[in-house]
Specification:
Elements: H1 6-12, H2 27-40, H3 44-126, H4 150-209, H5 217-259, H6 264-271, H7 288-297, H8 305-460, H9 495-498, H10 502-510, H11 524-541
Length: about 550
């Protein structure tokens, strides 16, 4: 009974002249065959299960196609999104790094300029104005007392405000970047989960499909499932055919028992409690219930002895094969269960890959729709703030340098003032020497002139009338030196004061109200120290 047409073949092989008289089996033997045939019909459950497996496998394949297509679409989109996301993070990090470098360089330059300015201010505080320059009743002063430091304080306050604003923007960017990194860490974690899931799924799929392909696991699973489905369908069709042969064998047994004397009641008794599922039909399965019931309830048709013998001969020949058919059905359902398990493994693997892919997609979607714009905006905000504050830093750096140059020039000017005072004292000493030498010469000429005039008066005075020249008896003129104020240098006073006539000073001098120039007499060591400081600054400048 290896196939569904074995009965008809057995019957067709014998003609009336080929049948040899044989001993017919007893009713009990036929009944035992009927009972065995009835038991074999329990294989209907395997055939029904086969139909369920095919239906479920087809559904799994359809779902797998949808899942694989959706996963593949997402994966292609995720690749681009991930690449774009990490490029954005890289650009944001470049902005942060460049900002930190420029900020650090700006602070270094500002600190250096401020240190130079403070050093100069400290020198101003340490440099005491020599007492000879100031009124006697005034307390000791330093050069710093002549400096208005409010400009420095205002500049420091402005720079501190700029630094605080830049620091705040940088701190906000750092916080934003840390949150960004946390998001990327979560995405990397989801990617690692996806990779481990894909690796595990690939291993399971490869094991279940006996393939070593290196393609994507979902594509590998999808490529092997159709062949598995075709194998299941083939097994199901074969099982349906085997079940049909069992049904025909059962019908043959029923007919044989009914055609045997005293077998009608036995046949009705045996077939009266057929399992409920035997009467059920489904897609891909024969309507076994109708076939069996039609044969059981059909009226008994007359049969010749030869036809009866041929029928019994076929029954006896097919009876041993019934067990083989049942075993084959069991083997096929076992094979189908194994194949269906492999399909289930591959379908579950596809679902796990899809879930892992959707997890990554969910992270990316949430990040892109809510937080990523804020991270990018924070980077733009830092760039804007830093651009403004860097401009202020450059301006402040220039102002610090200008103030340092101004105060350093003040120090140089004071030392040059000391040298100028020494120079003027030297000139004053030279003027005094010229005056002393001139006075000596004038006094000598005066004395000589007086002696000569007296000699002329004695020798010639008696002979000259007194009214011939009134000046003949006058003494020589006296030359006296009058010290006059030098006034102001050109450009040292406003034009209104600069327009005083030069003779006004002479008149004042002649009246005895001249303001004699007082040049401080500085100790030699003060002058030497000032000269040494100027020389040192010149060397540093070079």
């Amino acid at each position: 009974m290896a196939s569904s047409h074995s009965s008809s073949t057995s019957v067709a092989a014998r003609g009336p002249e080929s049948v040899e008289p044989k001993v017919m089996p007893q009713l009990d033997t036929l009944i035992s065959h009927l009972l065995a045939a009835k038991r074999s019909l329990s294989s209907i459950s395997h055939v029904w299960r086969a139909n369920e497996i095919v239906t479920a496998a087809r559904s799994a394949l359809e779902d797998s196609v949808v899942v694989s297509s959706r996963t593949g679409f997402l994966r292609r989109g995720l690749d681009n999104q991930l690449r774009l996301l990490f490029n954005v993070r890289s650009e944001v990090e470049k902005i942060s790094y460049r900002g930190r470098e420029e900020f650090s360089e700006a602070l270094t330059s500002l600190d250096a300029a401020d240190a130079r300015l403070r050093s100069t201010l400290d020198l101003l505080r340490e440099t005491v104005v020599h007492a000879s320059f100031r009124p006697k009743e005034e307390q000791t002063k330093t050069l710093h007392d002549f400096v208005d430091e409010r400009g420095v304080e205002k500049l420091h306050a402005a720079l501190k405000s700029s630094i605080d604003r830049a620091n705040t923007a940088r701190a906000d960017l750092d916080t934003s970047n840390r949150e960004f990194d946390d998001e990327l860490h979560a995405i990397r974690k989801a990617l690692r989960h996806y990779q481990s899931t894909a690796k595990m799924a690939s291993s399971r799929i490869s094991a279940s499909s006996s393939s070593s392909s290196t393609s994507e696991p979902d594509l590998l699973a999808l490529s092997s499932m159709p062949s598995m489905l075709r194998s299941l369908e083939m097994h199901a069709q074969e099982m349906a055919g085997l079940l049909s042969s069992l049904v025909r064998h059962f019908d043959l047994c029923v007919t044989a028992v009914k055609q045997t004397e005293g077998g009608g009641a036995a046949a009705r008794s045996i077939t009266g409690d057929m399992p409920a599922e035997v009467g059920t039909s489904s897609e891909g399965l024969p309507n076994i219930g109708e076939e069996i019931n039609a044969n059981i309830d059909a009226p008994l048709e007359p049969m010749t002895d030869q036809e009866y013998e041929e029928m019994v001969h076929v029954l006896l020949k097919d009876a041993p094969e019934a067990d083989d058919v049942v075993i084959e059905i069991q083997d096929r359902i076992t094979e189908m269960e194994s194949i269906f398990e492999q399909i289930g493994v591959q379908h579950d693997a596809l679902l796990s890959i899809s879930d892992a892919t959707f997890e990554v997609h969910s992270h990316l979607s949430n990040l892109a729709s809510t937080r990523l714009p804020r991270y990018i905006s924070q980077a733009h905000n830092f760039t804007h703030v830093w651009s403004e504050e860097n401009e202020r830093f450059n301006t402040g750096l220039t102002e610090l340098s200008d103030l340092h140059s101004l105060y350093d020039g003040f120090l140089n000017a004071y030392d040059n003032l000391i040298l100028e005072v020494a120079r003027r004292n030297h000139v004053r000493h030279r003027v005094e020497k010229v005056l002393r030498d001139t006075r000596h010469k004038l006094n000598t000429l005066y004395d000589e002139d007086v002696a000569a005039r007296e000699t002329f008066r004695v020798e010639q005075g008696d002979f000259l009338p007194s009214d011939i020249w009134p000046g003949v008896g006058r003494a020589p003129m006296h030359v006296e030196f009058l010290r006059l104020s030098g006034g102001h240098l050109e450009g040292a006073l406003p034009d209104a004061e600069r327009q005083i006539p030069a003779q006004a000073d002479a008149k004042i001098g002649l009246a005895g109200n001249e303001e004699e120039e007082i040049v401080p007499d500085l100790p030699k060591e003060v002058v030497e120290h000032a000269y040494a400081r100027l020389q040192a600054r010149n060397r540093d400048f070079v």
